[in-house]
Amino acid sequence: MDIFLSQNFIICVTIVFYVLLIIAPLLVAVAFLTYLERKVIASVQYRKGPNVVGLFGLLQPFADGLKLFSKETIIPASANKIIFVLAPMISFSLSLIAWSVIPISN
To answer: pLDDT tier at 1 (50, 70, 90 boundaries)?
Structure first.
């Protein structure tokens, strides 16, 4: 029984590792594309873009993420609380599932 559990644990850890190996670069790419978008919009509007956090503002996406996670969740009184909380999770999960059909080989 111990061998069965240890083999399944190793398989699960390997799967989680591969999933993170795919998702982490995607999330970092989205963060820096957001940074690039903010810089371009700032140049179009003749103002400075994000330049406060880190060298040339390169840590701004991480500061934005930290701010996002530390914000208080406000649920409207008339909203269905379960759907209000689950809708973003379902949307994010479906977008990740769409990435799963892209073949990735070693």
So the answer is: low
- Residue 88, H or E segment: helix 81-99
- Count the Cβ atoms, other than its own, within 10 Å of residue 14: 10
For residue 6, what are its two tokens?
A: 């240890």
The distance of Cα 6 from the centroid of its chain, to the nearest Å, equals: 30
SS3 annotation, 23-61 = HHHHHHHHHHHHHHHHHHHHHHCCCCCCCCCCHHHCCHH
CA distance 10 to 34: 36
Number of Cβ within 10 Å of residue 66's Cβ equals: 12
